[in-house]
# Entry
Amino acid sequence: MRRGLLRGLALAGCLCVLGPAIRAQTARLQLERGPYYAGESMRLQLSVVGFDDVPTPKLDFDPVDGARINVTGTSPSVSESINIVNGEMSRRREVKHVFELQLLAERPGPLLLPPMRLTQGRKRAESAPLQLQVQALPTHSEISVELRLPERPLYVGERAPVTIRMRLPDSMQRNLESYTLRVPLFDAGGRFHFIDSSEPGDVQLRVALASGELALPAQVAEEQSQGRRYMVFSAERTLIPLEVGRQQIPAASLTASEGVAFQRDFFRGRRPTRVRKWRAADRLRELVVRPIPHEGRPASFAGSVGRGFTLEVSADRSVVQVGDPISLALVLRGEGLERASLPPLSAEGLLPPTDFRVPAGELPGEFEGDEKRFSAQVRVLDAGVSEIPALAFSWFDPTRERFETTHSRPIALSVREAKRVGAEAVERAPQAKAPVPPEEPAASPLGWGSHADLAIVADARRLRGASAGGRQVYLQTTLYGVGLLLLVAALLDRRRRDLDPRLRERRLALDRARRRLREAANRAPETALEEVADALRRMRAELPEVPAPEIESFLAECDALRFAPAAGGADTELLARATALVAEFSERAR
# Structure
């Protein structure tokens, strides 16, 4: 008896100690008031107390057969209170997390919601399971929803129109309180890519997705059937399949809430007091996606699928030396630009690698309106090249089920051998000689030096005579001045020898370029132009860090003038521009 009493007291003590900790974390799942219908969203709310305000507890639950549960939001709230009882003050702080969820039952019948599990560090909580009865919505013969897909098989990467069409009787459209349109195809983001039109519509058709609501511009039309008038809402999207195979498309569905009883509000508007719900569903559909055939693929095919492509190529210069860079601008137009790309420029049918040096890999493109632009820099390797040949671009046309190829126009080039500037032609600054250690000064005529007479002179007359001798004073002043000048010269020489050799070479190269430009001003215009271009090319060879675009642009203009049919040579304005370029680089080299 006594032993049982002790066990009871121990158990009570444990409950007193552990009871608050056990009850500290609780979770409660609530469902909005019914009735509940299949195909219509239901709102769930999960309230959790006993956790810290941060971080948000992690929510987990088992999947539900025949239903989908999505978390739409969460928010914490903190409440604090102070109680004073019998002169004793107690403080209470409660943190509450509220999770908003959305439940969609796919079929009527009993539905059991599993427990909701929450974790935050070492804290745990779990809600009780919840059971509900889902009813079937009545159907309406005059309400319909239809998803229109292409009847033929599609190719991966092909653009194809899809249309969602919703039809309501005119009488119901006037009393329509709300509707929920679901298109499972639009939720299949991993298998399909969609492009929406930027054109405005008559209205916006709202489609409920798992990630939120999608608003599509829609057209409104009126139809007559068997003496009844209907309103038809249709929205179109462009579909691009991303995976090969047979794709099963679940049926689209529509739930409409029709007001059957109304009352006037404060602003004399109608407000429904009683509604009835209707449901319509489309049939299951299938989409077949084929791969791009391998047979007959051109070398200039890079995976583009579409119709009516054109390629336009332009160059920033047409008169060059071997090795000079040429900037190409490539503009692609056609239907299917979203996934269109150019092949490597070294591919067969493009630039021959024996004649051109081209960038490796595919070229990235950028959209500009209804065209896609690419850019590349190439160099001519052979003076015998006379043009940038017509470049090929190939794509697969899904309607004709064959590969198509277009070509750009060739670009004429005037290429001459490059004037090589080797190491032997580049003047180098003379190497700084090693400093010569100063020689030991010889003994001065006044007795200064290592053999100076340091005996103390006590004869007052000798002392007065030495201080009063004007010739000796002038000689001392001159020697001090010469010493100061030699010190200044030594400091300047030390600064010159400490100067960065690379900086000294840059300055010497720029000085040589300025000197050659001054000499070119005194020459005939025909030879002066070549002298100007050669001076800048030599400067570029000696100074690799000089920014190339300015020099290349100027050299391209010089080459164009030299090879022009009516070449006039270098004028004063051209020499001034070249001198300004050298002066600008001189400022940067300081």
Observations:
- DSSP finds eight helices and 34 strands in the chain.
